[in-house]
Fold each of these.
Amino acid sequence: MGELYRVAIHYDNDCGFVEYDTAEKQLRVLLDHEEKRRETEAYLMQRHTIRKAGQRLLDFSEVDILPVDNLEDLKLALTRLWQKTGVYVDWSRPVA
Protein backbone atom coordinates (compact mmCIF):
# COMPACT_ATOMS: atom_id res chain seq x y z
CA MET A 1 0.00 0.00 0.00
CA GLY A 2 1.26 3.46 -0.90
CA GLU A 3 0.61 6.86 0.52
CA LEU A 4 -3.08 7.59 1.08
CA TYR A 5 -4.50 10.91 -0.06
CA ARG A 6 -7.81 11.85 1.55
CA VAL A 7 -10.06 14.81 0.95
CA ALA A 8 -13.36 15.54 2.66
CA ILE A 9 -16.60 15.74 0.67
CA HIS A 10 -20.22 16.35 1.52
CA TYR A 11 -23.66 16.30 -0.04
CA ASP A 12 -26.40 18.10 1.91
CA ASN A 13 -25.79 16.93 5.51
CA ASP A 14 -23.94 13.73 4.54
CA CYS A 15 -20.19 14.04 5.14
CA GLY A 16 -17.59 11.65 3.80
CA PHE A 17 -14.31 11.53 1.94
CA VAL A 18 -12.48 10.42 -1.16
CA GLU A 19 -9.45 8.22 -0.51
CA TYR A 20 -6.78 7.46 -3.11
CA ASP A 21 -3.88 5.02 -2.74
CA THR A 22 -1.08 6.57 -4.82
CA ALA A 23 0.89 3.31 -5.29
CA GLU A 24 -2.00 0.98 -6.05
CA LYS A 25 -4.04 3.64 -7.89
CA GLN A 26 -7.11 2.55 -5.96
CA LEU A 27 -9.98 4.93 -5.27
CA ARG A 28 -12.58 4.70 -2.53
CA VAL A 29 -15.49 7.04 -1.87
CA LEU A 30 -17.16 7.03 1.54
CA LEU A 31 -20.49 8.88 1.60
CA ASP A 32 -23.75 7.86 3.28
CA HIS A 33 -25.87 9.13 0.37
CA GLU A 34 -25.64 6.02 -1.82
CA GLU A 35 -26.74 7.61 -5.10
CA LYS A 36 -24.22 10.46 -4.78
CA ARG A 37 -21.48 8.03 -3.69
CA ARG A 38 -22.00 5.97 -6.85
CA GLU A 39 -22.20 9.13 -8.97
CA THR A 40 -18.93 10.43 -7.47
CA GLU A 41 -17.15 7.11 -8.02
CA ALA A 42 -18.38 6.92 -11.61
CA TYR A 43 -17.21 10.47 -12.32
CA LEU A 44 -13.77 9.83 -10.84
CA MET A 45 -13.34 6.56 -12.76
CA GLN A 46 -14.14 8.06 -16.20
CA ARG A 47 -11.83 9.77 -18.67
CA HIS A 48 -12.40 13.53 -19.04
CA THR A 49 -11.19 16.41 -21.17
CA ILE A 50 -10.67 19.38 -18.87
CA ARG A 51 -9.41 22.90 -19.49
CA LYS A 52 -6.38 23.25 -17.23
CA ALA A 53 -4.95 26.60 -16.15
CA GLY A 54 -1.47 27.48 -17.31
CA GLN A 55 1.10 30.02 -16.15
CA ARG A 56 -0.79 33.18 -17.13
CA LEU A 57 -4.25 34.44 -16.19
CA LEU A 58 -5.90 33.51 -19.49
CA ASP A 59 -3.61 30.62 -20.39
CA PHE A 60 -5.64 27.40 -20.59
CA SER A 61 -5.07 24.13 -22.40
CA GLU A 62 -7.28 21.10 -22.78
CA VAL A 63 -5.94 17.96 -21.16
CA ASP A 64 -7.29 14.43 -21.36
CA ILE A 65 -7.19 12.79 -17.93
CA LEU A 66 -8.24 9.64 -16.13
CA PRO A 67 -8.47 10.73 -12.48
CA VAL A 68 -7.22 7.41 -11.06
CA ASP A 69 -4.01 7.54 -13.14
CA ASN A 70 -2.23 9.85 -10.69
CA LEU A 71 -2.78 12.25 -7.81
CA GLU A 72 -2.44 15.40 -9.92
CA ASP A 73 -5.19 14.25 -12.30
CA LEU A 74 -7.40 13.22 -9.38
CA LYS A 75 -7.07 16.66 -7.79
CA LEU A 76 -7.88 18.32 -11.13
CA ALA A 77 -11.01 16.19 -11.52
CA LEU A 78 -12.04 16.98 -7.95
CA THR A 79 -12.11 20.68 -8.85
CA ARG A 80 -15.02 19.85 -11.20
CA LEU A 81 -16.83 17.41 -8.88
CA TRP A 82 -19.43 19.84 -7.53
CA GLN A 83 -20.34 21.07 -11.01
CA LYS A 84 -20.76 17.52 -12.32
CA THR A 85 -22.38 15.76 -9.34
CA GLY A 86 -23.46 18.31 -6.74
CA VAL A 87 -21.00 16.79 -4.26
CA TYR A 88 -18.88 19.47 -2.60
CA VAL A 89 -15.15 19.02 -1.90
CA ASP A 90 -14.14 20.41 1.51
CA TRP A 91 -10.50 21.11 0.68
CA SER A 92 -9.66 22.63 4.06
CA ARG A 93 -11.54 20.20 6.34
CA PRO A 94 -9.18 17.56 7.78
CA VAL A 95 -10.02 13.87 7.39
CA ALA A 96 -9.10 11.72 10.37
Note: DSSP finds three helices and six strands in the chain.
Amino acid sequence: MKKLVLNILVLIILSAFVIVTSGCVSLKDKLVSSGNNSLSLETMKEVDYARYLKKIWVVKAWNGEAYQYFSFFINKIADNTIQGKLCKDEIAYPDFYFYSLEPSKYLGDLSGTLNNGVAECKYEDKFGNKGIVTLAFNEDDEIEAKITYTDKEEALKNDLIDSDYKFRPYNLADREDFIPSKENSFAVDLNSWGSVKLITGEIDHGAKKYPAAYLSNEHGDILYAFQAPFQTASKLTSASIKDINGDGLKDVILTTEFIEDPSIEHIKWTFYQMSDGLFYDSEVNSN
Protein backbone atom coordinates (compact mmCIF):
# COMPACT_ATOMS: atom_id res chain seq x y z
CA MET A 1 0.00 0.00 0.00
CA LYS A 2 2.79 2.41 0.97
CA LYS A 3 4.57 1.58 -2.28
CA LEU A 4 1.43 2.38 -4.29
CA VAL A 5 1.01 5.75 -2.55
CA LEU A 6 4.67 6.55 -3.15
CA ASN A 7 4.33 5.77 -6.88
CA ILE A 8 1.28 8.03 -7.15
CA LEU A 9 3.13 10.90 -5.46
CA VAL A 10 6.05 10.50 -7.87
CA LEU A 11 3.67 10.66 -10.86
CA ILE A 12 2.01 13.81 -9.51
CA ILE A 13 5.38 15.55 -9.00
CA LEU A 14 6.57 14.60 -12.49
CA SER A 15 3.33 15.85 -14.06
CA ALA A 16 3.64 19.19 -12.24
CA PHE A 17 7.25 19.53 -13.44
CA VAL A 18 6.23 18.96 -17.05
CA ILE A 19 3.44 21.55 -16.82
CA VAL A 20 5.73 24.20 -15.31
CA THR A 21 8.63 23.66 -17.70
CA SER A 22 6.43 23.47 -20.81
CA GLY A 23 5.99 27.26 -20.68
CA CYS A 24 9.75 27.92 -20.58
CA VAL A 25 10.63 27.11 -24.16
CA SER A 26 12.28 29.23 -26.81
CA LEU A 27 10.73 30.49 -30.02
CA LYS A 28 12.64 27.86 -31.95
CA ASP A 29 11.25 25.07 -29.74
CA LYS A 30 7.71 26.39 -30.09
CA LEU A 31 7.91 26.51 -33.87
CA VAL A 32 9.57 23.12 -34.23
CA SER A 33 7.13 21.38 -31.88
CA SER A 34 4.08 22.83 -33.65
CA GLY A 35 5.22 21.63 -37.07
CA ASN A 36 3.41 24.44 -38.88
CA ASN A 37 5.14 27.60 -37.63
CA SER A 38 2.33 28.49 -35.21
CA LEU A 39 2.24 28.38 -31.45
CA SER A 40 0.78 25.41 -29.62
CA LEU A 41 -2.52 25.74 -27.74
CA GLU A 42 -1.02 26.34 -24.31
CA THR A 43 0.88 29.43 -25.56
CA MET A 44 -2.12 31.07 -27.23
CA LYS A 45 -2.98 34.39 -25.55
CA GLU A 46 -4.23 37.89 -26.19
CA VAL A 47 -1.34 40.16 -27.18
CA ASP A 48 -1.38 43.94 -26.81
CA TYR A 49 0.41 44.69 -30.07
CA ALA A 50 0.25 48.46 -29.52
CA ARG A 51 3.11 48.19 -27.02
CA TYR A 52 5.43 46.93 -29.79
CA LEU A 53 4.61 49.61 -32.36
CA LYS A 54 7.00 52.43 -33.38
CA LYS A 55 9.79 51.31 -31.06
CA ILE A 56 13.19 50.57 -32.59
CA TRP A 57 14.21 47.02 -31.69
CA VAL A 58 17.85 46.07 -31.11
CA VAL A 59 19.48 42.77 -30.15
CA LYS A 60 19.11 42.24 -26.42
CA ALA A 61 22.73 41.09 -26.00
CA TRP A 62 24.14 44.30 -27.55
CA ASN A 63 26.63 45.93 -25.17
CA GLY A 64 26.63 49.44 -26.65
CA GLU A 65 29.64 49.05 -28.92
CA ALA A 66 29.44 49.35 -32.74
CA TYR A 67 26.11 47.85 -33.76
CA GLN A 68 26.57 44.84 -36.07
CA TYR A 69 23.26 43.02 -35.80
CA PHE A 70 19.77 43.18 -37.24
CA SER A 71 17.43 45.93 -36.09
CA PHE A 72 13.83 46.71 -37.02
CA PHE A 73 10.71 48.69 -36.23
CA ILE A 74 7.01 47.94 -36.71
CA ASN A 75 4.87 50.84 -37.88
CA LYS A 76 1.54 49.10 -38.51
CA ILE A 77 -0.43 46.15 -37.15
CA ALA A 78 -4.03 45.81 -38.34
CA ASP A 79 -6.40 43.01 -39.38
CA ASN A 80 -3.82 40.32 -38.54
CA THR A 81 -1.22 41.93 -40.83
CA ILE A 82 2.06 43.55 -39.88
CA GLN A 83 4.33 46.07 -41.63
CA GLY A 84 7.71 47.50 -40.74
CA LYS A 85 11.32 47.94 -41.76
CA LEU A 86 14.43 45.88 -41.02
CA CYS A 87 18.11 46.48 -41.65
CA LYS A 88 21.34 44.66 -40.98
CA ASP A 89 24.53 45.89 -39.32
CA GLU A 90 23.02 49.15 -38.06
CA ILE A 91 20.17 50.55 -36.00
CA ALA A 92 16.91 50.85 -37.91
CA TYR A 93 16.09 54.54 -37.57
CA PRO A 94 12.90 55.51 -39.49
CA ASP A 95 13.63 57.74 -42.48
CA PHE A 96 14.49 61.39 -41.88
CA TYR A 97 14.68 63.37 -45.12
CA PHE A 98 17.25 66.14 -45.29
CA TYR A 99 19.00 66.20 -48.65
CA SER A 100 16.15 64.59 -50.61
CA LEU A 101 12.93 62.63 -50.21
CA GLU A 102 14.67 59.42 -51.26
CA PRO A 103 14.12 56.69 -48.64
CA SER A 104 17.08 54.91 -47.07
CA LYS A 105 18.42 52.03 -49.15
CA TYR A 106 19.45 50.24 -45.97
CA LEU A 107 15.93 49.77 -44.65
CA GLY A 108 14.37 46.61 -46.09
CA ASP A 109 10.62 45.95 -46.22
CA LEU A 110 9.13 43.70 -43.55
CA SER A 111 5.55 42.50 -43.97
CA GLY A 112 3.47 39.47 -43.05
CA THR A 113 0.59 38.03 -41.06
CA LEU A 114 -0.11 37.47 -37.36
CA ASN A 115 -1.38 34.29 -35.75
CA ASN A 116 -1.59 33.66 -31.99
CA GLY A 117 1.18 36.05 -31.02
CA VAL A 118 3.56 35.06 -33.83
CA ALA A 119 4.19 37.04 -37.03
CA GLU A 120 5.36 35.28 -40.19
CA CYS A 121 7.02 37.97 -42.33
CA LYS A 122 8.83 38.33 -45.62
CA TYR A 123 11.92 40.52 -45.73
CA GLU A 124 13.43 42.14 -48.82
CA ASP A 125 15.96 44.95 -49.25
CA LYS A 126 17.37 46.91 -52.19
CA PHE A 127 20.57 44.83 -52.26
CA GLY A 128 18.78 41.64 -53.28
CA ASN A 129 18.59 40.05 -49.83
CA LYS A 130 15.37 38.19 -49.11
CA GLY A 131 14.23 36.02 -46.25
CA ILE A 132 11.60 34.82 -43.82
CA VAL A 133 11.44 36.53 -40.42
CA THR A 134 9.38 34.96 -37.63
CA LEU A 135 8.59 37.23 -34.68
CA ALA A 136 7.20 36.07 -31.32
CA PHE A 137 5.87 38.82 -29.06
CA ASN A 138 6.89 38.09 -25.48
CA GLU A 139 6.11 39.91 -22.27
CA ASP A 140 8.49 42.35 -20.59
CA ASP A 141 9.24 44.26 -23.82
CA GLU A 142 10.93 41.42 -25.66
CA ILE A 143 10.58 40.03 -29.17
CA GLU A 144 12.10 36.74 -30.25
CA ALA A 145 13.03 36.45 -33.91
CA LYS A 146 14.14 33.73 -36.28
CA ILE A 147 15.69 34.96 -39.53
CA THR A 148 16.09 32.60 -42.48
CA TYR A 149 17.52 33.81 -45.81
CA THR A 150 16.10 32.72 -49.16
CA ASP A 151 18.31 34.99 -51.30
CA LYS A 152 21.61 36.74 -50.51
CA GLU A 153 23.61 39.44 -52.22
CA GLU A 154 26.73 37.95 -53.81
CA ALA A 155 29.27 39.93 -51.79
CA LEU A 156 27.85 38.80 -48.45
CA LYS A 157 26.75 35.23 -49.12
CA ASN A 158 29.07 33.85 -46.47
CA ASP A 159 28.36 36.63 -43.94
CA LEU A 160 24.55 36.56 -43.84
CA ILE A 161 23.78 33.68 -41.50
CA ASP A 162 20.39 32.30 -40.46
CA SER A 163 19.98 32.75 -36.73
CA ASP A 164 17.71 33.27 -33.70
CA TYR A 165 17.71 36.52 -31.73
CA LYS A 166 16.07 38.25 -28.80
CA PHE A 167 15.29 41.94 -29.20
CA ARG A 168 14.57 44.80 -26.79
CA PRO A 169 13.64 48.47 -27.35
CA TYR A 170 16.42 50.91 -28.25
CA ASN A 171 16.65 53.38 -25.36
CA LEU A 172 18.23 56.75 -24.60
CA ALA A 173 20.32 54.92 -22.00
CA ASP A 174 22.08 53.18 -24.91
CA ARG A 175 23.42 56.57 -26.00
CA GLU A 176 26.07 57.07 -23.33
CA ASP A 177 27.44 59.96 -25.41
CA PHE A 178 24.11 61.84 -25.33
CA ILE A 179 23.57 64.60 -22.75
CA PRO A 180 19.87 65.64 -22.62
CA SER A 181 18.72 69.21 -22.09
CA LYS A 182 15.86 69.59 -19.60
CA GLU A 183 15.26 73.16 -20.73
CA ASN A 184 14.46 72.24 -24.34
CA SER A 185 12.82 68.84 -23.85
CA PHE A 186 9.10 68.37 -23.26
CA ALA A 187 6.08 66.12 -23.75
CA VAL A 188 3.75 66.66 -26.71
CA ASP A 189 0.81 65.04 -28.46
CA LEU A 190 2.24 64.59 -31.96
CA ASN A 191 -0.46 63.39 -34.36
CA SER A 192 0.05 59.72 -35.30
CA TRP A 193 2.93 59.42 -32.82
CA GLY A 194 0.50 60.00 -29.97
CA SER A 195 1.82 61.20 -26.62
CA VAL A 196 5.62 61.37 -26.92
CA LYS A 197 8.56 63.45 -25.71
CA LEU A 198 10.83 65.66 -27.77
CA ILE A 199 14.25 65.09 -26.19
CA THR A 200 17.02 67.48 -27.21
CA GLY A 201 20.61 67.82 -26.07
CA GLU A 202 24.08 67.19 -27.42
CA ILE A 203 26.32 64.32 -28.43
CA ASP A 204 29.64 64.51 -26.58
CA HIS A 205 32.54 62.71 -28.27
CA GLY A 206 35.14 64.48 -26.17
CA ALA A 207 37.01 66.34 -28.88
CA LYS A 208 33.77 67.38 -30.57
CA LYS A 209 30.20 68.06 -29.52
CA TYR A 210 27.11 68.68 -31.60
CA PRO A 211 23.31 68.96 -31.08
CA ALA A 212 20.93 66.00 -31.20
CA ALA A 213 17.16 65.55 -31.01
CA TYR A 214 14.93 62.50 -30.61
CA LEU A 215 11.33 61.46 -30.08
CA SER A 216 10.90 59.02 -27.22
CA ASN A 217 8.15 57.45 -25.14
CA GLU A 218 7.74 57.87 -21.38
CA HIS A 219 10.25 55.07 -20.74
CA GLY A 220 13.00 56.69 -22.78
CA ASP A 221 12.66 54.28 -25.72
CA ILE A 222 13.87 56.06 -28.86
CA LEU A 223 11.20 56.23 -31.57
CA TYR A 224 12.75 58.70 -34.01
CA ALA A 225 15.97 60.65 -34.58
CA PHE A 226 16.20 64.03 -36.31
CA GLN A 227 19.39 63.23 -38.20
CA ALA A 228 20.22 66.69 -39.48
CA PRO A 229 23.86 67.79 -40.05
CA PHE A 230 24.05 69.97 -36.95
CA GLN A 231 27.34 71.86 -36.72
CA THR A 232 30.09 70.77 -34.38
CA ALA A 233 30.53 73.15 -31.41
CA SER A 234 27.03 74.61 -31.80
CA LYS A 235 24.33 74.21 -29.15
CA LEU A 236 20.58 73.79 -29.39
CA THR A 237 19.09 76.84 -27.68
CA SER A 238 15.36 76.53 -28.38
CA ALA A 239 12.78 73.96 -29.46
CA SER A 240 9.10 74.23 -30.30
CA ILE A 241 6.38 72.24 -32.04
CA LYS A 242 3.55 73.73 -34.10
CA ASP A 243 1.87 73.39 -37.48
CA ILE A 244 3.93 75.68 -39.74
CA ASN A 245 2.46 74.92 -43.16
CA GLY A 246 -1.21 74.54 -42.18
CA ASP A 247 -1.60 70.88 -43.14
CA GLY A 248 -2.89 69.83 -39.72
CA LEU A 249 0.38 68.09 -38.78
CA LYS A 250 2.68 69.45 -36.09
CA ASP A 251 6.18 70.38 -37.20
CA VAL A 252 9.42 70.65 -35.21
CA ILE A 253 11.41 73.88 -35.02
CA LEU A 254 14.91 73.87 -33.51
CA THR A 255 17.43 76.70 -33.16
CA THR A 256 21.18 76.19 -32.83
CA GLU A 257 23.80 78.80 -31.97
CA PHE A 258 27.53 79.09 -31.42
CA ILE A 259 27.41 80.24 -27.80
CA GLU A 260 31.12 81.03 -27.61
CA ASP A 261 31.04 83.10 -30.80
CA PRO A 262 27.81 85.15 -31.00
CA SER A 263 29.02 86.80 -34.20
CA ILE A 264 28.13 83.60 -36.06
CA GLU A 265 24.49 83.73 -37.12
CA HIS A 266 22.21 81.21 -35.43
CA ILE A 267 20.41 78.62 -37.56
CA LYS A 268 16.69 77.87 -37.46
CA TRP A 269 15.89 74.31 -38.47
CA THR A 270 12.31 73.52 -39.55
CA PHE A 271 11.33 69.88 -39.90
CA TYR A 272 7.92 69.31 -41.51
CA GLN A 273 5.90 66.27 -40.52
CA MET A 274 4.46 64.01 -43.23
CA SER A 275 1.21 62.03 -43.08
CA ASP A 276 3.13 58.85 -42.19
CA GLY A 277 4.78 60.55 -39.19
CA LEU A 278 8.20 60.96 -40.82
CA PHE A 279 9.88 64.37 -41.07
CA TYR A 280 11.71 66.31 -43.77
CA ASP A 281 13.79 69.47 -43.63
CA SER A 282 12.29 72.68 -45.05
CA GLU A 283 15.20 72.97 -47.49
CA VAL A 284 14.24 69.74 -49.29
CA ASN A 285 11.50 71.55 -51.21
CA SER A 286 14.01 74.03 -52.61
CA ASN A 287 16.50 71.37 -53.81
Note: Confidence is low (pLDDT under 50) at residues 16-24, 32-44.
Amino acid sequence: MYKSITILYIVCFGLYILFTRQPDFFDGEMVPANIHFSKDSSTGLPMPKAVFHAALSTYAIDARYVLRSWEEGEKLTVIYETDHPEKGAVYLFWGYWLSWGELMATVLIYLALFKIATAVTQNPTPEALLEQLTHKEKPKKKYKE
Protein backbone atom coordinates (compact mmCIF):
# COMPACT_ATOMS: atom_id res chain seq x y z
CA MET A 1 0.00 0.00 0.00
CA TYR A 2 2.82 2.40 0.87
CA LYS A 3 4.53 1.87 -2.47
CA SER A 4 1.40 2.62 -4.46
CA ILE A 5 0.69 5.78 -2.46
CA THR A 6 4.27 6.94 -2.91
CA ILE A 7 4.19 6.25 -6.65
CA LEU A 8 0.88 8.09 -7.01
CA TYR A 9 2.24 11.07 -5.07
CA ILE A 10 5.41 11.20 -7.19
CA VAL A 11 3.38 11.07 -10.41
CA CYS A 12 1.10 13.88 -9.20
CA PHE A 13 4.08 15.99 -8.14
CA GLY A 14 5.79 15.34 -11.48
CA LEU A 15 2.71 16.49 -13.39
CA TYR A 16 2.46 19.54 -11.16
CA ILE A 17 6.06 20.44 -11.94
CA LEU A 18 5.67 19.85 -15.68
CA PHE A 19 2.66 22.13 -16.09
CA THR A 20 3.35 24.96 -13.61
CA ARG A 21 6.78 26.26 -14.62
CA GLN A 22 7.07 29.96 -15.40
CA PRO A 23 8.14 30.78 -18.05
CA ASP A 24 6.21 27.92 -19.63
CA PHE A 25 8.35 25.02 -20.79
CA PHE A 26 6.16 24.22 -23.80
CA ASP A 27 5.71 27.80 -25.07
CA GLY A 28 9.03 29.26 -23.97
CA GLU A 29 12.04 30.04 -26.11
CA MET A 30 15.50 28.86 -25.10
CA VAL A 31 18.53 30.98 -25.89
CA PRO A 32 22.17 30.94 -24.81
CA ALA A 33 23.27 33.45 -22.20
CA ASN A 34 26.40 34.54 -20.36
CA ILE A 35 26.91 35.37 -16.71
CA HIS A 36 27.88 38.96 -15.98
CA PHE A 37 28.36 40.34 -12.47
CA SER A 38 26.97 43.78 -11.71
CA LYS A 39 26.73 45.65 -8.42
CA ASP A 40 23.42 45.55 -6.64
CA SER A 41 22.10 49.08 -6.07
CA SER A 42 20.89 48.41 -2.53
CA THR A 43 23.74 46.33 -1.09
CA GLY A 44 26.64 47.23 -3.37
CA LEU A 45 27.60 43.55 -3.65
CA PRO A 46 28.26 41.90 -7.02
CA MET A 47 25.19 40.03 -8.26
CA PRO A 48 25.20 37.45 -11.09
CA LYS A 49 22.99 38.29 -14.04
CA ALA A 50 22.26 36.09 -17.05
CA VAL A 51 22.59 38.32 -20.10
CA PHE A 52 20.86 37.23 -23.32
CA HIS A 53 19.60 38.72 -26.58
CA ALA A 54 15.97 38.47 -27.69
CA ALA A 55 13.92 40.47 -30.17
CA LEU A 56 16.79 42.85 -30.99
CA SER A 57 17.20 43.76 -27.32
CA THR A 58 19.53 42.70 -24.53
CA TYR A 59 18.06 41.46 -21.28
CA ALA A 60 19.66 40.66 -17.93
CA ILE A 61 17.85 38.44 -15.46
CA ASP A 62 18.76 37.52 -11.90
CA ALA A 63 20.77 34.28 -11.78
CA ARG A 64 21.08 33.90 -8.00
CA TYR A 65 19.87 30.70 -6.41
CA VAL A 66 20.67 28.64 -3.34
CA LEU A 67 23.65 26.25 -3.80
CA ARG A 68 24.48 27.72 -7.20
CA SER A 69 27.68 29.64 -7.87
CA TRP A 70 28.69 31.31 -11.11
CA GLU A 71 31.84 32.69 -12.64
CA GLU A 72 32.10 35.69 -14.94
CA GLY A 73 31.48 34.75 -18.58
CA GLU A 74 30.05 31.31 -17.80
CA LYS A 75 27.68 30.08 -20.50
CA LEU A 76 24.19 28.81 -19.74
CA THR A 77 20.71 28.59 -21.21
CA VAL A 78 17.81 30.93 -20.47
CA ILE A 79 14.15 30.19 -21.10
CA TYR A 80 11.69 33.04 -21.65
CA GLU A 81 8.26 33.72 -23.08
CA THR A 82 8.28 35.86 -26.21
CA ASP A 83 5.72 38.29 -24.74
CA HIS A 84 7.82 38.96 -21.62
CA PRO A 85 11.52 38.25 -22.17
CA GLU A 86 12.41 40.27 -19.06
CA LYS A 87 10.73 37.55 -16.96
CA GLY A 88 13.06 34.82 -18.18
CA ALA A 89 14.66 32.15 -16.00
CA VAL A 90 17.90 30.24 -15.97
CA TYR A 91 17.13 26.83 -17.44
CA LEU A 92 18.69 24.31 -15.06
CA PHE A 93 17.22 21.33 -13.25
CA TRP A 94 17.93 22.85 -9.83
CA GLY A 95 16.17 26.18 -9.91
CA TYR A 96 13.83 25.92 -12.88
CA TRP A 97 12.36 22.44 -12.48
CA LEU A 98 12.92 22.04 -8.74
CA SER A 99 13.04 24.80 -6.17
CA TRP A 100 13.67 24.75 -2.44
CA GLY A 101 10.21 25.91 -1.52
CA GLU A 102 8.37 23.36 -3.63
CA LEU A 103 10.64 20.53 -2.56
CA MET A 104 10.23 21.29 1.15
CA ALA A 105 6.47 21.82 0.77
CA THR A 106 5.96 18.53 -1.05
CA VAL A 107 7.96 16.60 1.55
CA LEU A 108 5.95 18.17 4.38
CA ILE A 109 2.63 17.54 2.62
CA TYR A 110 3.58 13.93 1.87
CA LEU A 111 4.62 13.28 5.48
CA ALA A 112 1.47 14.92 6.87
CA LEU A 113 -0.84 12.94 4.58
CA PHE A 114 1.08 9.73 5.34
CA LYS A 115 0.75 10.31 9.09
CA ILE A 116 -2.98 11.04 8.74
CA ALA A 117 -3.52 7.88 6.67
CA THR A 118 -1.66 5.68 9.13
CA ALA A 119 -3.41 7.27 12.12
CA VAL A 120 -6.83 6.64 10.60
CA THR A 121 -6.12 2.99 9.77
CA GLN A 122 -3.87 2.06 12.67
CA ASN A 123 -6.03 0.92 15.61
CA PRO A 124 -9.40 -0.31 14.32
CA THR A 125 -12.20 -0.92 16.79
CA PRO A 126 -13.08 -4.51 17.74
CA GLU A 127 -16.40 -4.17 15.90
CA ALA A 128 -14.60 -3.22 12.68
CA LEU A 129 -12.22 -6.17 13.03
CA LEU A 130 -15.11 -8.54 13.62
CA GLU A 131 -16.93 -7.16 10.59
CA GLN A 132 -13.86 -7.68 8.42
CA LEU A 133 -13.42 -11.26 9.64
CA THR A 134 -17.05 -12.25 9.18
CA HIS A 135 -17.59 -10.46 5.88
CA LYS A 136 -18.59 -12.78 3.06
CA GLU A 137 -18.78 -11.49 -0.43
CA LYS A 138 -22.11 -12.02 -2.18
CA PRO A 139 -21.86 -13.99 -5.39
CA LYS A 140 -22.12 -11.74 -8.39
CA LYS A 141 -24.34 -12.55 -11.30
CA LYS A 142 -22.68 -13.00 -14.61
CA TYR A 143 -25.21 -10.83 -16.43
CA LYS A 144 -27.19 -7.87 -15.20
CA GLU A 145 -30.95 -8.22 -15.30
Note: The chain has three helices and five strands.
